[in-house]
Amino acid sequence: MRYVLQVPQLLIIEDDARIRSLLMRALDERGYAVSSAATGMAGLSEVVDRRPDLVVLDLGLPDVDGTEVLAMIRAVSQVPIIIASARDDEPSLLRALDSGADDYVIKPFTAAQLEARIRAVLRRAGGSSKLPNVVVVGDLEIDVRARRTTLAGEKIELSPKEFELLAYLAGRAGEVVTKRELLTDVWQQSYGGPDKTVDVHLSWLRRKLGETADRPRYLQAVRGVGVRLAAPET
Question: Which are the contacts of 100, defined by CB distance < 8 A and separation ≥ 6?
C-alpha cells in the first residue's frame, strides 16, 4: 500500500501581527501547514475545530492570559504546546510547565530555534515527522519499517547510514534540509564548521539512485542552503 506523507499541522496563538506573520511564513517555508489566532479564545476554538499537531502559544494575549489559555486547552486536548513568550522569569516558566506546557522558548528567538523545539516536541510525542511505513516519491519507494528501498521496482542496497539519511529526507519530502540539520538529527553531532560527512554520504546515495550532483533527479541541491528530496521534474 502507498501512503501520502502527512504534513504536521501547527497553530500559532500570538497577538503581535508582525511576529505572527513572520513565524507563519518561516514555518510554512520549512514544510509545515500553519494556521494562527490573535487571541486566546480564538486559539482555543482553533484547537477544538482544527485539532492541530502542535500549538505555539504566547503568554501575553489581549483577552486571556496565556497560562489560562494553556489550562483551557489542556481541559479539552493533549496537543503538544510550546510556550513562546518574552517572560523570562523562573516563576512564569515553571508555572507554564506545571500547567502542561511541553517546552518554553524565550523571545526573541530565530525561526530555526523554534523549529528545533517543534521537531523535538513532536518526536517525544511520537509524531516528529508523521512518517508512514512507506513513503513514495516518484518511482522511489522507501519502506521505513522493513528498511527497504526500491527504485522503479528494483531494490537498492544501502548502508545503514545511507538509509537513515534517505529516510530522514523522506520524512521531510519536498522541504529543503540544511547540512546542520542533517548532522544534528541523523549523525547526532553538533555542527562545528566545515564537515564533509554529509556531502560524502549524499554523493554515495546519489550514485545508488543513478544520479550525480550535476544531474540530480531525486536529491536536489539548493545552493548555499541544503538538499531536497523530491520527484524528478518531467
Answer: 70, 71, 73, 74, 81
Q: What pLDDT is stored for residue 124 in this prediction?
A: 76
User: Does residue 49 contact residue 19 with C-beta atoms inside 8 Å?
Assistant: no
- Whether the pLDDT of residue 138 is over 60: the answer is yes
The grid coordinates listed for 83 are 510556550
The answer to pTM > 0.70 is no
Q: Which domains does the chain have, with CATH numbers?
A: 9-124 (3.40.50.2300), 134-229 (1.10.10.10)
Contacts of 98 by beta carbon, 8 Å cutoff, 6+ apart: none
